[in-house]
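Q: I'm writing a short methods note and want an example of a predicted protein-small molecule complex. Could you take the sequence and the SMILES for pyridoxal-5'-phosphate and return the bound structure as tokens? Please keep the output block clean; save any remarks for afterwards.
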Amino acid sequence: LAIKYSGKHEVLFCGESFHGRTILTLSVTDHPEYSAPYVENLPKGFKKVEFGNLDSVKEAITENTAAIIIEPVQGEGGVHIADAEFYKGLNELCKEKGVLIIVDEVQSGFGRCGALFAHELFGIDADIMTVAKGIGGGFPMAAFLAKEDVAGGFVPGDHGTTFAGSPLAGAAANAVFDAFEEEKLVEHSKEMGEYFLDKLAPLKEKYDFITDVRGSGLLVGVELNFEGADIVGKMLEEGFLINCTAGNVLRFAPPLVVKEEEIDALVEALDKVFSAL
Ligand SMILES: Cc1ncc(COP(=O)(O)O)c(C=O)c1O
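A: Understood, no commentary inside the block.
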């Protein structure tokens, strides 16, 4: 849509990004372990910029730049949040240069980061937004949204897939929206995220090998000064399914309905695993 709407052919993407495993999304994914076998020999219409570094974006923009695609909070990259000035500057720069901003909210959206969409937290003036995961509440569904003028870049028939516009998926998403409202899940995510970070703070004091604890809502990262894969296995033995991204960042993305006592139990298990190292 960005390319058709703008008539330009270059798209910028950020270092340490993850946008998926199709050829297009692999081209803007900075994880060679996923992308290299497929995209190494393709023509490159995609340019990498440094996440959080506005000068790097400025330098990369040319008259051919259609858009920049960005995760407001980088998930796979290790739960990274850029400085507020970066997001603000990005808006101004992109507006000035006529570059569309595509926010990928597949992981960060639908309450995960303590707002309905994470880009709202940082005031990113998004032209196009991609969503999946949370929108279906477990039912397989994805969507992309665009501002009205940008959406006009497509005319009926331009875009479609076999399963696009599925009424069943639409009904599932409607039910998800109802649950979000009735159970105040976005507010709950924000509250529980703050609670979680508070509970993790003493662990950071206790263990020197924890180099950072950061997060937004219920997307939380604990950065270690060693590879974290073994911790994932040990936490599984304790009954907790966690993940490790970027090699050394334990990533926690608990269900949005998580309760304080469940967070307490998880932090206790983490303390137990860490103390046995
Ligand atoms: C930010 C982001 N974008 C895109 C994707 C890819 O989504 P899918 O696997 O549904 O293509 C993911 C998957 O985790 C993701 O985290």
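A: Remarks, as requested: The chain has a mean pLDDT of 95. The domain at 2-181 is CATH 3.40.640.10 (Aspartate Aminotransferase; domain 2).
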